Amino acid sequence: MINLKAQYNSIKAKVNKDIINVIKSTQFILGQEVEKFEEDFAKYIGTKYAVSVASGTDALHLTLVAYNISKDDEVIIPTFTFAATAFAIAYTGAKPVFVDITEGSFNINATKIEEKITNRTKAIMPVHLYGQSADMDEINRIAKKYKLLVIEDACQSHGALYKDKKVGTLGNAACYSFYPSKSLGAYGDGGAIVTNDAGIATKLKMLRNQGQERRYFHTMIGFNSRLDSIQATILRTKLRHLDKWNKARRKLAETYNKLLKGLPIGLPEEMDYAYHTYYLYTIKLQKRDILRAMLKNAGVDSAVHYDMPLHLQECFKYLGYKKGNFPVAEKLSGDVLSIPMYPELSIKQIELITDIIKKFCKENL
Ligand SMILES: *Cc1c(COP(=O)(O)O)cnc(C)c1O
């Protein structure tokens, strides 16, 4: 699916040296490297502040805590996303409220948001899935009308654009994951929040570090959710390559599109408003599992993002949803298949993969 080794090899000398320097400095948690990364990341996204934390899940959770989301509140999210989007809401005691997605973009169907708003709704958390922005103008219009917060789950869309604006600058705050496989990935767990809100940035810095304003003076009940300096130094180096890597992903997506055109399968669609960064290249097809097996036989990995929408997951049974509530997400969860996508993927490899898909189509569809 992805090849982290190829990317490591391309930056090995620098990264190895930087890691050794951190070890020599013995400044392992937060500190100068982390501050420098936060500066670089805020500058890259185009926000005033970036606050690093221990994971993307924590970024979402601590952001909700910083905005005082708690029991009795509701937060609107798409049902078709990674479970952590909803977990972050559940951790605060608030209720995740699901909305269906649109088939073309895989993102939240903005026309279905308003019917879910109640007097308990506090925020909308759109997810920019697979590397493509949600329809943010419509979401922000609704948020303004009902005075709701907009918190972007940008964990899959580092560097993506919406109408030439960076994802991450489109709401009150945006959350990123630096899990190793993400488009900007550390060599361990990591995450960050970006915002222009000074009060929220300050609060997040306290929340991530045991609620301390200064050492052993705890202003609030906090968490241990800090980025370590080794991850920060790696992320700083990788950030400099991100635009180039995203461009490579786009080029590879174009090649896939060209070679798969005309087959009876659905290809990823880039919305008019979007600059898609193809964290994942996800196709839609019938008899998906037969193709998966054929790919596997040829030594090609694939993955399903996601087999089951969140409203049908056992852990959210208490919310009372049932099959049929969100037909688009339910259908797509049976049809989607992510095939290999990473900047170092070669055209030859893509040809091998698309040849298998062509053979599959001939024999099965
Ligand atoms: C990866 C991801 C997360 C969680 O990030 P972690 O760093 O793994 O905690 C949250 N939301 C989405 C959409 C993700 O893809």
Features:
365 residues, alpha/beta, seven-stranded mixed sheet, three-stranded antiparallel sheet, 11 helices, 39% helix, globular, binds pyridoxal-5'-phosphate
Task: Provide a descriptive summary of the structure in words.
This protein is of the alpha/beta class. 39% of the residues lie in helices and 15% in strands. The protein contains eleven helices and 14 strands. It has helices at residues 4-25, 32-45, 56-66, 83-91, 136-146, 198-207, 229-239, 242-260, 288-297, 327-335, 347-364, and strands spanning 49-53, 74-78, 95-99, 121-124, 149-153, 161-162, 165-166, 173-177, 191-195, 212-214, 217-218, 274-275, 281-284, 336-339. The strands form four sheets. It has a seven-stranded mixed beta sheet, sandwiched between helices. A three-stranded antiparallel beta sheet has the order 7-6-12, with no helix packed on it. Helix 5 links the parallel strand 4 and strand 5 (149-153). Helix 1 (4-25) packs across helix 7 and helix 3 runs parallel beside helix 4 (83-91). The two termini are 24 Å apart. The relative contact order is 0.16. The structure holds pyridoxal-5'-phosphate. Pyridoxal-5'-phosphate binds next to helix 3 and helix 4.
